[in-house]
Design goal:
The complex is a heterotrimer. By secondary structure, chain A is α/β, with parallel strands linked by helices. Chain A is built from ten helices and 14 strands. Chain A has a six-stranded parallel sheet with strand order 2-1-3-4-5-13, with helices on both faces. Chain A has a six-stranded mixed sheet with strand order 7-6-8-9-12-14, sandwiched between helices. In chain A, strand 3, helix 4 and strand 4 form a beta-alpha-beta unit. Chain B is mainly alpha-helical. Helices cover 76% and strands 0% of the residues of chain B. Chain B starts with 8 loop residues before the first helix and ends with a helix. Chain C is mainly α. Chain C has a domain of 206 residues. Chain C is built from twelve helices and two strands. In chain C, strands 1-2 form a two-stranded antiparallel sheet. Chains in contact: A-B, A-C, B-C. At the A-B interface, helix 1 and helix 3 of A face helix 1, helix 2, helix 3 and helix 13 of B.
Chain lengths: 368, 355, 315
Amino acid sequence: MFKKLTAIFMSTVLTATLLAGCGSTPNPGSSGSGGASAATAFKVGMVTDSGSIDDKSFNQGTWEGVQKAGKDLGLETKYLKPTGTTEADYLKEIGNLHDAGYKFIVTPGFKFSTAIYQAQDKYQDSKFVIIDASPADKNGKESIKPNTVAIFFAEHESGFLAGVATALQLKEGDVGFIGGMEIPPVQRYNWGFQQGIKYANANFGTKITIKPENVVYQGTFTEIAAGQQLAAHMYDSGVKAIFAAAGSVGLGTINEAKARAKAGKEAWVIGVDVDQYNEGIYDGTKSIILTSAMKKIDTAAYDMVKAEKDGKFEGGKAITFDSKNNGIGIPDKNPNLSSDVTTKVAEVLKKIQAGEIKVSGERGDLIK
Amino acid sequence: MKLQFGKGSFKNVAVALLAIVFGLLAGAVLITLTGSDPLAGYAYLFKGGLMSLERFGDTLATSTPLILSGLSVAFAFKTGLFNIGAAGQMLMGGFCATAVGLTLDLPSVMILPLAIMASIVGGAVWAFIPGILKARFNVHEVVSTIMMNWIGYWVVYYAVPGYFKGEFLETESRAIPDAASLKVGWLSQLFNGSFINLGLFLAIAAVVLIAFILNKTVIGYELKAVGYNRFAAEYAGINVNRNIVLSMMIAGALAGLGGATLYIGNASNIQIGVLPAQGFDGIAVALLGANSPWGSLLAALFFGLLYSGKGFMNAMIQIPPEIADTIIATIIYFAATSVLIERLLKRLRSRKRGQ
Amino acid sequence: MWTVLTQIFPYAVAFTIPLLITALGGLFSERSGVVNIGLEGLMVVGSFGGALAIFKLQPAFPNGAVWIGIMVAMLSGAVFALLHAFASINLSANQVISGTAINMLAGALTVFLARNITGSGNIRIASGLTRMDIPVLSSLPVVGKLFFTQTYPSTWLVLAILGLSWYVLYQTAFGLRLRACGEHPHAADSAGVNVFRVRYLAVILSGAFAGLGGVIILITYSGEFTGSVSGLGFLALASLIFGQWKPLGILGATFFFGFASTIANVSQVMPALASIPGVLLKVFPYVLTLIALIIFSKTTQAPRAAGEPFEHGKR
């Protein structure tokens, strides 16, 4: 009996190998526009973090940047979604991209840290861009090899600007913060936001308060219902605006604010990562998104691809996108902010750029 | 070695293979609909899993937790229990192994057996509760194991940041020291740097052991008797309750061991906020493997190949990543509706006879 | 405490309703003798069908789109449930396995379709249902604040279906036949009941209800189809057993889940509860369910023939 089984199994394997043999003839690059000049043509790959490619934030932002670069520069692009979130899963997809000829690989997320640490040695003919982290071994020892660039954002500066804008627009009352998981980028948003509020209170005479119980990390980026419930509770206890840096949890917050705004109550959300104005639209034209604390992931991804194309890839370096290179900020236009507020925020931005205002990326004596 | 198969084993193999063929055909239709060539796609799928020694090693490593979770589900099925809680048992097993690895500072030869034992105990304890609830209070194991999944999820969710927090990250534990990892240098080098590890041997040993228990021992006979007809078994003097608890505990131990191969084998730390998908895939593995230990092994290798190769397929041709998942689900559906396939086989056979 | 209670009450209800209607679907299926572990997948399918319909129609019919979406969701859930009905009724397949296949298929196939139809694996809708206070009733003391403020229309729809289901199950000939199929299919068969037809109908109903549950999540609090309902289908299944396969029982069980998980979620921002370790609050509903199942185990009301394929002449 076992012989029979083995025979069947072997024949399956054989068929598979045969099939595999047949498949080697067709041209691998069957899609995209590979028509660019051969010398500088390279293919750009991306591996997604735990969320989906359509997360309207991190993965999607990176992918949009990569795609735009692909279109503008005539490069093939591709993203892969790993089956799990372990280092092995990430390395496997990086290997798949590499073997398929995608030798410029962008990975969004701190979770890629150890995977890129290994990949930069293993695939020395490839270039890597890691966002929000440096490559590090499992004991946290960082090392950026010449074929890798690590990108950081000054989320605290972005949060600061959003905080100033919120304070100026609302003038007085309570605000709150809902974070996803307690990870450095989210924490920096939070700390920056609190500093922004403080700055506005001290320099523009606003009277905005943040109560310690209204600063929370929900603990996931996925639980929409919890986002709604937390937001509802905060609004009920008098909070006028919530800064939600929490993925889908933030989506729950936005939905709750929309429901309240429809009923004629005051409820604002400060968006995160990208301009979320459109997510907050209700009754046709109005939106509950007061402003958004953005980090321009798409620009960063685009710039890296373009740099490689132009032969200016700054391998071995950690690049920070902050106010100085316009890598962070709030949207230029948002109908919910008065023009006076927009002008004042622009002035604050200039002061940060000039170094007159220092925004700290550390917790210090701030809440959580 | 002489291997024992049940009466219907040829039929089981045929059904499983046909289910795979139908699943692949359905996948081919979908690939064609999205405008790609299914033959090329499948070629890349298999190449992705097999074309180099490293990839072959990765495929085996991907299969390892699936072998054990599949074995866990299959074993419980034999006693008539549906262990939908393999994911939670894996998580707890992996958590216990990680905890041992991070707490004790011992040489490899001592810490590895301890970590493995811890994973087995962790999984067994997590399954003991549904087992005793089923035996004593007739609480349906589907509900109780789901509850245990969530309880495990939240326990790990709070315990990891509380006691084993990484230096910078709240969301995962510190990395375990090399001594406590199932990855060993010679094996990785043998497979050109693959993440294959000792877990594979543990899994194969478990398959051999479970096949032996089920087919050659009194315990195995009793467990199967309980699964076949609880009341008849009771009448024959078998202690049904004891066997139910025992079966759940063994199933949990297997899943827990699977957790060790996942968290201190394929990975080197434990993350919070995720139940391992391999636990749920174990149901599919057991099903395709017709609930037999060797069947589970083969089915897990096949699914491991699919999971391992699908990334390469996606990298080479333009198809959505969900295709591979759809193929797997279709295979399961066809395996579930095996009656249909059996009828088809019967008709083919009778037609042959008619000629 | 009272103000806190009134504040979280509407959200507990919002979380309860999708669970309730899905569990009710499971009730019809299991009472007819077909175990439906595929509720999770059927919810996903409903969420997908609804999201797609609303996404496509909302620009043209801003007001009616949501209700059309609800109908499409129920329809798609019902159609997908046919797969389960076919496998478990016609082919006498193992119902647990067939249900598992439904779950796996739903998650993969819907995201695949979403990506091919809309270009994205997630479908976000511009707006869902609007909450409202019920006139007059909302000003009643105590109950007004709890039950009639900030309610979604879908809540009342589901409660109406619940009442109707109770009536159908216990007060009509069809209900009697359905329950008979789940207890003694052969006796029902000899009494002239078409067991096949009754079971088909019940499984289709369970699909429609689970689909409704899925779309209610979408149009009340999530606003986005993502290819998952994060285990709520399994929680509905647990509620069905917790609620002892009875409409009012599952109302109690699902409300318990809704309330307990809402409290666990908002405990972070409630000073009164902040001192309790989070892990205790999070595992509380699950542990209590286990305890409740032990307490009810003496009087378990599981349909006797649930999970058993029916074949003519088999005694």
